[in-house]
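Entry 14. Ran structure prediction on the chain below.
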Amino acid sequence: MPLFDRSARPLTLTAAGEAYIRKYEEIRSLEEELAMQLNDISGLKTGSLKIGGSHYIISHILPPFLASFSGKYPGLNLELIESGADSLLDMLEDHEIDLTFNCEKDPEETFLRIPCFTDHILLAVPKAFAIPAPLLSAAMTGEDILSGRHLRDEFSAVSAAAFADLPFVLLTPGNGLHDRAMTVFAAAGISPVIRIMAGQLTTCFHLCEAGMGAAFVPDRLINRPDSPMRFFRLDSPYAVRQFDIVLSGKRYISNAVKAFTAHMNPDDPA
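Output, structure tokens:
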């Protein structure tokens, strides 16, 4: 039977073609599952692991874990797939990746989640920006963040309303941190002055460093004690993000995936 309707522009699948593709995907999934089971028999001496993550996760969270994991299991081939959170969940659903990371749980989802790490969203403000004098006692340096003082309530949390007149650098819509930022603004009753938007968190961070505007940044992104920015704890429940390792709830979980989730030390409260 014909698989394509060649009279259509662009070319489309026939009903038989759609049925063929569905069965092909089922067969491919079974073949991949069989390969994982056979690799498990080999004791993690061979095999592969496809890890999906955002630019923030892949560039700033995973490198030390990947280096030590690869040293422990040198026979495993690691592949990193970088994309947005929603796209990564779709890839996991379609078995294109073995695991990903996510901090926005859908109550109707069927994924398996394992708590992994927490980060704290801070408001970063270039030091060149004038801020009200009462806020100075709440301002933190890069050294304060690196020493973990922002986790010990040594500095007062402030409302985003106190910075309503500042220009902001925000992530573009569709990014989880953009949605959190807009929720924080709405709760504070302000409409932010958005100077520029960017698609990558690290881009927003560096634009803030350059003095383009204030930005929402996770504490794990801050790596300079002499940062040219002041940091403020936000008085908002949305300033804390719990990231999970997310696995397919409908697929065989390989020993490689189990070993990696254990290696990430999900019980670490840091």
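The chain has a mean pLDDT of 90. Will compare against last week's run tomorrow.
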